[in-house]
User: Which sequence fits this backbone?
């Protein structure tokens, strides 16, 4: 029986993952939070899921590397420095990093990539995401994931094409940009829409999460897939087999 350890075990996702483990026939190796020992848990677990915080990622990756334990990173709000850490860790252990563990979101990102590639620069792309009032980062990890999928299909990067700070007299929309809008309120788990707009027509691709359990189940599925893999950096596309 595969054992799964949870970094960030007292957070919303950590608790949801622990509750869903019996459904998969897996066992909880334990969990850590602020002040805990990530190294001890990494030694006990067959695979780790990390839903802690960006500030904890360096120590968590170091613990996983030292124990040679695969790690699935679902923490959002990561910057370039964090991704360089993940790339370095992937030289020694299996690492899967994603902004969203929902299987439906994984498919949505695939559809966004295909739509952007087929429609090209003549269609404007806008991404709208909404989450609960307590979410700390914006745009969301999923919004960035969808933006990156669109940018990749257009042969650019989200750093170059993304626009998330419209206010005041901004003038006409710049061609080739990807708009990002973040809404926060209530207890919304996660709504994401990608709008492709052209003259006279519009395509909207939308995913709405009604139960946090979908993310927990996706994270467990990804962790079980990752356990025993060779060192490398993996994606949810590979878990989905697409």
Assistant:
């Amino acid at each position: 029986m595969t054992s799964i350890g949870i970094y960030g075990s007292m957070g919303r996702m950590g608790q949801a993952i622990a509750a869903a483990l019996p459904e998969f026939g897996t066992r909880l190796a334990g969990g850590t939070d602020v002040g805990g020992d990530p190294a001890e848990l990494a030694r006990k677990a067959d695979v780790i899921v990390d839903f802690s915080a960006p500030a904890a990622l360096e120590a968590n990756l170091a613990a996983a590397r030292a124990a040679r334990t695969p790690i699935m990173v679902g923490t959002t709000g990561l910057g370039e420095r964090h991704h360089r850490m993940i790339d370095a860790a992937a030289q020694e252990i299996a690492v899967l990093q994603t902004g969203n563990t929902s299987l439906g979101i994984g498919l949505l990102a695939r559809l966004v990539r295909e739509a952007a590639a087929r429609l090209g620069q003549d269609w404007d792309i806008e991404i709208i995401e909404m989450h609960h009032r307590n979410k700390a980062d914006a745009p969301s990890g999923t919004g960035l994931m969808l933006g990156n999928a669109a940018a990749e299909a257009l042969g650019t990067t989200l750093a170059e094409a993304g626009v998330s700070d419209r206010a005041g007299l901004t003038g006409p929309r710049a061609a080739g940009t990807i708009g990002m809008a973040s809404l926060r309120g209530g207890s919304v788990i996660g709504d994401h829409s990608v709008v492709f707009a052209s003259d006279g027509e519009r395509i909207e691709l939308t995913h709405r999460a009604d139960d946090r359990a979908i993310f927990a189940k996706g994270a467990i599925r990804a962790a079980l897939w990752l356990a025993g893999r060779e060192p490398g950096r993996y994606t949810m596309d590979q878990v989905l087999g697409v």
The mean pLDDT is 94.
